[in-house]
Amino acid sequence: MTRRPGRTSGARRWHTEVNSPSDVRALAEGDLEGLCQGLRGEIIAFCGKVGGHLGASLGAVELCVGLHRVFHSPADRLVFDVGHQAYAHKLLTGRRGQFATLRQEGGLAPFTDPAESPHDAFGTGHACTAVSVALGLAEAKRRQGEPGRAVAVVGDGALTGGLTFEGLNNAGRDRWPLVLVLNDNGMSISANVGAVPALLRSPGARRFFEALGFTYLGPVDGNSLAELLPALWEARRSNRPVAVHARTEKGLGFAAAEDDRVTRGHAMGPYELRDGKLVRSRGGKLTFTEAFAAALEARMAADPRVVAVTPAMLEGSGLGRLAARFPDRVFDVGIAEPHAVAFAAGLAAGGARPVVCLYSTFLQRAYDQIIHDVALPGLSVVFAIDRAGLVGADGATHQGAFDVALLRPVPGMTVMAAAAGEDFPALLATALASKGPSALRYPRGTLPALPTALHPGVEPVEGARWMKRASAPRLCVVALGPLALVALEAASGEKRWSVLDARFASPLDRAALCEAAASGAVLVVEEGTVRGGLGSAVLELFAEEGLTPRVRLLGLPDAFVRHGDARAQRARLGLDAAGLRRAGKALAAGGAP
Q: Which CATH number fits the domain that encloses residue 530?
């Protein structure tokens, strides 16, 4: 970088009076750097209280100030890819007074959200969408004769995803007056991989964009307004597609983020500073992610055919240690879920045993490849689906609601769920022994305790697991994943309640479920959408078998669950022990489902 902003501790407080894009445009040129200092200090302070995607937003402060200095939002439509980098944008568009509610129940969204502000041109949360969306907004403006420009603010990590290239191809062909602002900090969550980062550090960047039909401006120092503003002004004057290549520094201005060489403070907090040192709360408990990674590491050590594939989720999926130990068997393919799955299909077709590690919400982006390239040829690819169920503060774009409903209808697909960390060795062994595709889902969060008598060992398993088996049950609770342990807690003291851990959403354990139906009342609970999920599968089985117990389904509603505390959301949805106990008692008593 050619320069660095000063530390934020001495920033003046006048910047808090800048609450709209028009305020930014009214400032004297000499006050803009002070505004950036103040914004950076606010982001650091607020994220210390509520956590958040800190690193990218710190690096994009000057970008946000520059965009609002040059463009006139909301007439000019600013589309932030993902939205990780948009905190300064939120502060500059009238949301300073609400910023302490970021990612909290009923508070500001973790990403951009048009319901929050007219300055949020589009709701975001997944990468690689900004170019396509901005093109659509530009064309809509043209058709309606509206003034204004469309601006896509895209991180260089999004250039590893195919959807971005599809949009660039379309823009260059049709010569739409799109402004692409490339926020090049060399990172996705961690360092970018592949040929694109090298391209952006070479003269090939200009040739690439110009070959696609873009005017190329840059590279400029994106943390220097003196370099950035002239490029943005020139881009605004253009009547053809133009790319402003701005190099920024993720985590800039916050020593703890700058010193984090792995993710540069990507998602931090809450935290506090004591005597200038960062102090973070650490629970010390193992997580589902860590337990799965340990089980995968053991399998990779035992079988050289086992490899791991991840679409830019190396740290999020707990694969950092595995990548260090098996550098030629852990593949980070960038923000490219369809490619990750098709790549894994090729590996499987060649005799390897690939495990694709990704989040439930990102699995959705590769559904065609799962069906066409993996399931149709019957390839043995394992999908390790992290963040299944409610994820809390990341909200509606990241809730792991749909993976069971998406995968259950796929022919030949085995769908499993871990109730506790002790389940991973056996379930992963089951998946790797499968002759076709399989999926293993598990939630975000720390590990619950599994009674020793219920430990499955390390060998492959089949069918459901009885957590509690009453001799003459009046109710059976059928659960998937950690909710099986919640159901066990709910059933404590109820002598005539049975609890069945379905363990497999597909194929179902028909014998165990027929036994559950014999109780006369079945409560099916899952942390996924009830439409097409485990409950739907159980009802289908009962219909096929001609069984007619009273049934109630509990799960995620037919609505997108917004951000908030996941524990509070479970309680509100009746997915905690108290909620399951209420529902079970009503159903056992013959109450309406």
A: 3.40.50.920
- pLDDT, residue 264, reads 62
423 and 483, same domain (yes or no): no
Mean pLDDT of the chain: 91
- 3-state SS of 152-180 is EEEEHHHHHCHHHHHHHHHHHHHCCCEEE
Catalytic residue, chosen from 95, 250, 468, 474, is 250
**Could you please report the per-residue DSSP string of 430-496?**
HHHH-SS-EEEE--SSBPPP--GGG---SS---S-EEEE--SS-SEEEEE-TTHHHHHHHHTTT-TT
Helix axes 577-588, 483-490, angle to 10 degrees: 60
- Residue with tokens 């069971």, as numbered in its chain: 404
Residue 241 domain-assigned (yes or no): yes
Transcribe 9-57 into DSSP letters: GG--GGGGG--SHHHHHHS-GGGHHHHHHHHHHHHHHHHHHH-B-HHHH
Those residues with Cβ within 8 angstroms of residue 368's Cβ, 6 or more apart along the chain or in another chain? 338
Residue 7, pLDDT score: 42
The residue annotated as part of the active site, out of 62, 315, 337, 527, is 337
Residue 250 falls in the annotated catalytic set: yes
Contact 371, 362 (CB under 8 A): no
Structure tokens at 9: 């501790």
Q: Residue 3: what pLDDT?
A: 37
Which residue shows structure tokens 């490029």?
Answer: 231
* One domain for residues 179 and 148: yes
- 263 and 334 belong to one structural domain: no
Residues 26 and 168 both lie in one domain: yes
Q: In terms of domains, do 133 and 93 share one?
A: yes
Residue-level pLDDT at 417: 98
State whether 59 and 203 are in the same domain: yes
Catalytic residue among 69, 90, 247, 365: 365
Using a 10 angstrom Cβ sphere, with 0-12 exposed, 13-18 middle and 19 or more buried, the burial of residue 13 is exposed
Residue 384's H or E segment, with its range, is strand 382-386
Question: Would you say residue 378 lies in a domain?
Answer: yes
Query: Sheet of 414-417: strands edge to edge?
Result: 330-332, 306-310, 353-359, 382-386, 438-441, 414-417, 504-506
156 in any annotated domain: yes
List the CATH number of the domain containing 215: 3.40.50.970
What pLDDT, on a 0 to 100 scale, did the predictor assign at position 273?
54
Q: Find tokens 């009214």 and name the residue.
A: 26
Nearest to 465 by CA among 504, 439, 421, 422: 504
Residues of the chain with pLDDT under 70: 1-14, 188-190, 192, 257-258, 260-262, 264-284, 591-593
Let me know if residue 298 belongs to a domain: yes
pLDDT score for 157: 86
**Does 369 lie in the same domain as 435?**
yes
Structural domain including 496 reads 465-588
Is residue 337 flagged as an active site residue? yes
